[in-house]
Write a structure and sequence with these properties.
By secondary structure, the protein is α/β, with parallel strands linked by helices. It contains 7 helices and 13 strands. It has 2 domains: 32 residues; 291 residues, 4-Layer Sandwich (Purple Acid Phosphatase, chain A, domain 2). Strand 2, helix 2 and strand 3 form a beta-alpha-beta unit. The N and C termini lie far apart (77 Å).
């Protein structure tokens, strides 16, 4: 009897260990595949990167490049895209922020090979690129698309949203295909905004879908999208917190293939989707700070110096197949003096 009970106890221990191991393996498989598993434990904290820069620095923000076979001129304008890549490299920025729709079809590895080839100068010159995920980057098989994406950006460690600390700036990069107000991403954003370090002057938020846009789903001039309720709610949350925060919130988004600038509740919002996907004119809202009926292929060059940020829109126009550049919009954002204690 004693030997029987001893054997039974051993079997139970082995069974429990096997059950625990199976659960661990299952959790690991789901995590690698990009799924989020809710537990009662504290949520997983996405990767926090740090870029060491000295003194005043400059960075570039743009998006909606749609890298794909250059022969596919229906998906994007390859001449524009390649001219923008070269001009951005010539700026020698501290880093490049791409607000999504990097490729035309994220599930197609050949589109990513075009990215590899056309942006090779950025890598040769060691210019860091911090991407946000756009809807086209998830096109096709989402699992394959994310695999292609993370293969290019291994430093993200499979995180679809993350932070980067750059001098006196904190950059929060979001995945707007996920909930920005609640769920793991939303809770993470709130936790970061609740604990902004005292030496941060600017909180830069990068997301694909814009909280504000002059564009609409009506596509009056052939293209466009309305702002979605989820991003509108996110903007309301930001503007509420901005009233209690010395650091200035600056939002860069894309999705709309043009340029826009909006200011609401102390927050500056840029729409910078002129990276190569075919641009279209939009019917400008009265509160859009940039009034233009043009097609605006462009990139934004931001200069940061202590409590001062200047953002300039550099517009590209092809004349006779040759790039012509002009600065069509400039805005200065300053941080208010610290309140005396």
């Amino acid at each position: 009897m004693y030997q029987y009970l001893k054997t039974l106890s051993l079997v139970r221990i082995i069974s429990v260990r096997r059950l625990w191991l199976s659960a661990f393996v299952l959790f690991s498989v789901f995590a690698v595949a990009g799924y989020q598993i809710k537990t009662n434990a504290a949520p997983h904290q996405p990767v926090g990167l740090r870029l060491l820069v000295a003194g005043p620095f400059r960075f570039v923000a743009f998006g909606d490049t749609r890298f794909t076979d250059p022969r596919n001129t229906e998906a994007a304008n390859p001449t524009v895209r390649q001219a923008l890549v070269k001009a951005i490299a010539d700026e020698h920025p501290a880093f490049i922020s791409i607000g999504g729709d990097i490729t035309y079809n994220g599930g197609d590895v050949d589109d990513w090979k075009v990215w590899d080839y056309e942006t090779r100068r950025w890598r040769d010159e060691s210019i860091p690129v911090y991407p946000a995920i756009g809807n086209h980057d998830l096109k096709g098989s989402e699992q394959t698309a994310l695999s292609n994406y993370f293969a290019r950006f291994p430093e993200l460690q499979q995180n679809r949203f993350y932070s980067v600390r750059i001098a006196n700036c904190l950059m929060l990069v979001l995945d707007s295909s996920l909930d920005e107000i609640s769920a793991p991403q939303g809770e993470w954003v709130k936790s970061k905004l609740d604990a902004i370090p005292a030496d941060v002057s600017f909180v830069i938020i990068v997301m694909h879908h814009p909280p504000y846009t002059s564009s609409s789903d009506a596509k009056k001039y052939g293209g466009g999208h309305s702002a979605r309720p989820s991003e509108q709610a996110f903007a309301h949350m930001l503007e509420t917190r901005q009233q209690l925060t010395r650091a200035r919130f600056v939002v860069f988004s894309g999705h709309i293939h043009n340029y826009e600038r909006h200011e609401h509740g102390g927050v500056t919002y840029f729409v910078t989707g002129g990276g190569g996907a075919h641009a279209y004119p939009i019917e400008r809202a009265l509160d859009d700070k940039f009034q233009s009926n043009d097609l605006n292929y462009h990139y934004l060059l931001a200069e940061v110096d202590h409590d001062f940020m200047r953002v300039a829109m550099h517009r590209l126009e092809l004349r006779g197949g040759k790039p012509t550049w002009s600065t069509r919009d400039t805005v200065e954002i300053t941080v208010p003096p610290a309140s005396p204690h």
